[in-house]
Design brief:
Length: about 400
């Protein structure tokens, strides 16, 4: 095995070199953006397009009008006040009301301070979870060269927090099932990323975390209604129609940033209904394979890798910044490969997944073909194959 590792094209020396090169490129690009931003130049643009929406929604909630965030025209007034260049209709607010429990404190800070706080807290949690999955010296170095990290950082999205919650929940599943369930319940703030977890837990007969997840999600919803009122809950329900409209008529540039089979199908000429059908078929296969793997595979790392990869294949509403989740299955598979040896093609698939966010960003400006879903599916299939031939634990 040592000889095979040394002679593989992705040996340790090349691996360190490639990762360092990508990290350096991203650092240079980030520095250039930073220089032009309002963090360093009072006349520069505010960092984090999506965070501008988060912070504006937090302002409305702090003023006692959280329901206004779901009204696009009222939300735009706040966004436009500090960023006049943003076009109304290029964003929306679709998060469940209990997401306000997380973001409302951001309104206490100026925009730049709130952005840095939100990003740094999420990034630290994300790094801790990835390092805990694969506790090796080079883990954080690899993470630094992962484009998914930089895309989430520059868009100001919540990918760090959702990935940390999902990965952390799985790390605690065996030792602290109730706490694990609570962390899964926290994903109800972005429910499309929690859809596969109940399938896995039911297949495993993990009743404690499943019940804790349901109870914590219900509790969060009830406490948000108690604090924010039913009007906010109804406004959120009404906003879901706009979210569906965004998905269906978002346009080529929007779909090119959605690594889903819905986007692939629609960009390839399928109708909306056909695209939903193709995506649903993939989702059913993913759920079935997840069920079977969680029933028969004894290696928890492979189960967790499969679940976190499959999470990105279930919902049609997954965007490029959600690919921060890819670091989770990559880390678990890297751990398995380093402990038990690599199977043919595994390192190539992991390298492709690691490059996917940057590849998607480049393709969105070059050619309207969405291959992100196929890449994630290849990762999911590779993990599933290994899980079905897993070594005893």
């Amino acid at each position: 095995m040592v000889s095979e590792v040394q002679h593989h094209w992705l040996n340790r020396k090349r691996f360190v070199l490639y990762v360092g090169a990508f990290a350096l490129v991203y650092l240079i690009l980030a520095a250039g953006i930073l220089v032009q931003s309002s963090l360093l130049d009072p006349k520069g643009f505010p960092l984090g397009f999506d965070f501008r929406v988060f912070w504006s929604a937090a302002q409305l909630a702090a003023q006692g009008h959280p329901e206004a965030a779901y009204d696009l025209s009222r939300l735009h007034v706040v966004v436009h006040a500090f960023n006049p260049e943003v076009r109304e209709g290029s964003y929306g607010w679709f998060y469940p009301p209990h997401y306000f429990l997380l973001i409302t404190p951001l309104a206490w800070f100026p925009y730049n301070s709130a952005y840095l706080l939100f990003m740094m807290v999420g990034l630290v949690a994300y790094g801790v979870v990835i390092r805990a999955i694969c506790p090796r010296p080079e883990t954080l170095w690899v993470l630094l060269g992962f484009s998914g990290l930089w895309i989430n950082l520059l868009t100001g999205q919540n990918g760090f927090l959702t990935a940390a919650a999902g990965g952390g929940a799985l790390l605690l599943l065996e030792s602290h099932p109730l706490l694990s369930g609570v962390m899964i319940g926290l994903l109800s703030c972005k429910p499309q990323l929690a859809l596969l977890f109940p399938v896995a837990l039911l297949a495993r007969g993990a009743w404690k975390p499943l019940i804790a997840a349901v109870c914590s999600a219900v509790f969060l919803m009830l406490i948000s209604v108690a604090l924010l009122g039913m009007e906010t809950f109804r406004a959120w329900q009404g906003s879901l129609g706009l979210a569906k409209t965004f998905l269906e008529v978002g346009g080529t540039r929007f779909w090119m940033r959605m690594p889903t089979f819905f986007s692939f199908s629609h960009l390839s000429g399928a109708s909306i209904l056909q695209s939903y059908g193709i995506h649903a078929l993939v989702g059913i296969v993913v759920m079935g394979l997840t069920w079977l793997t969680w029933r028969r595979c004894r290696n928890p790392d492979l189960r967790y890798a499969q679940l976190t990869a499959g999470t990105l294949l279930i919902s049609p509403y997954v965007l490029i910044y959600d690919l921060t989740w890819l670091a989770l299955p990559i880390a678990w598979m890297a751990k398995a490969g380093l402990e038990y040896g690599w199977k043919r093609g595994e390192r190539e698939v992991l390298a492709l997944a690691w490059l996917l966010p940057a590849f998607m960003m480049a393709m969105s400006h070059l050619y309207p073909l969405q291959l992100g879903g196929w890449c994630v599916l290849a990762l999911f299939a590779m993990i599933s194959y290994r899980a079905w031939h897993a070594e005893p634990t």
